[in-house]
Amino acid sequence: MEPLSSLENAAGADVWHFASSGESIAGSLLETVRATPIGALNVVTTPYCGGQRWRWIMPRGASVVDRNPVPMDFPVTRSFRTTLTLDIAPPDDIAQEGVLHFLSTLFDLKTEIDERADDLFEYRGLRCLIAPTARVNVLRTEQAAAIIMAIADRTEGGNYVVAGAESLSGEDFLERVGNIYGVSLLALDAKELFSPRLTAIDALFDRRLMNFAEHLGQPNREVIEHAYNAAGMRSAQPGLGPAEFDDLAKSAHQTQLSEHSALVSHASKPPETRTTHSGERELSHSSTSSDGEAIVLLNALGQGPKPWSRLIAHLRPRFRVLSWDPRGLEESESQLSLLDHVAELASILERESVTRVHLVGWCTGPKIAAEFALRHPGRVLSMTFLNMQVKCLESSPNFDTPFETEFEAIFSELEQRPSTASYIAASLTSGATEAGLDLMTETDESEAVLGAMNRDLRMPVLRPFRDASTTIRFARQMIDFWHYDVNEVAGQIDVPILFFASEYDRVAAPKASEWASGLFPRARLLQAPGATHYFLYDRADVVARMIEWFVSGDGMPERSDGHMPSLDPAYVSKSADTAGLLQAGK
Question: For residue 584, what pLDDT band results from cuts at 50, 70 and 90?
């Protein structure tokens, strides 16, 4: 098979279109079909076809494949609809289809929770909106493909449902998966969606599953027999038995564990460090390679490389990733302003001979990006603002979080009484231990865990408060940044911008990002449910995929002149065009 768009002489070819259940064919691909003298069009729909582990963050109804999907009005020769499928897990997030979608969603959520409160699932279950009596019909992917090809070889057309003759109950399915993944999965009827028994973690799991329960059920026996008869088989096959299901689920789990372990190991290896000069100051920065488009990561004030480590590991295969830690905390360094950081960014780009760049800023970093784009409008291809802190001391509206309000008072105290710096630093660092969850109700506990910081970051984020000197210097830099009003410059920046906001961000309010995204002419906003200020670390895979999707042009809003940005084919993300792929067969 090969992509249809690459065929110039496709007369008589059988074309196969694979799509997720309920998905429309992309307009551009349909035009290709219409313009090609094909022999037959076969449409195969399967749950979560071409699905990736980050699709849940997209606004409901949004497409990552094509901006203008259209109804399928081309004559279809054969139509196939499969039940849930399962096979050995593919690498990374490619084609997490069928049951793999459920397993990957469970693994990712459990990993996130374990990294915030590692014993939660030892005494708490995870409710799933699957009725105990629901039927979970599963076929091995290879088996489903063989049946489909046999039907295509033996028939001239028709509609077929490819499923197994037998199925698991919802309760049995959850028990088997739970035993393998180390979490008690509790069946809950969908009518209890708004039940008080459903915690915030349960609701987040349901959101990420993306209506998994809709794909459950046992097809009519006659409908199943029709497909098997068309394939030349005497009787319907049973599908995936319990033992084989367990083996494949265990294999998927082991693959996921290995991939996560490899990511952690890869992220622990820092990129190459280089030096340059900004004025008379020597400046260190890191670079992953000299290949690919350049992305510069703009860190939050006072922070080190740890929060970015996983994101760099995900981005470096495709991009040339540059980063540096904002200076100004050490006594040997002069006091730096926001404009000094902008100048340092310019020096790094000059040192690396980068003419055009994508900027990714976290927390205070977006203000550096905005000012750089204002001063160098032709050099910025796109900007991504992760959990932006928009606070400005002189302007409204006021979206301050309790964190920002408290630190404004602390910094004011330091400005008036620098002698209190040692006491303040000690007070801030002494509270770094994990909060106890023992006496909380299950509902309160669920909210607390989702809002908790990843344990890997609890000490690194305290870097600005190592001692009295770093605390004072950090306070002065923050006050300088809080005098910068993004409202005054946003309208002048004609650069596509992707905003990320997190539901449980206790540092920068999600409403602040929502407000700020409305100030820039070409901005769009993604909101991450169940995420914290450290989403870039907790789910670096999701952030990386969204950056790839955005900078490819697929996610970019219109230019200020009303036109869509032109797309360089080399920019198109491989993970974004899996679903909807048209292929020509024998």
Answer: very low
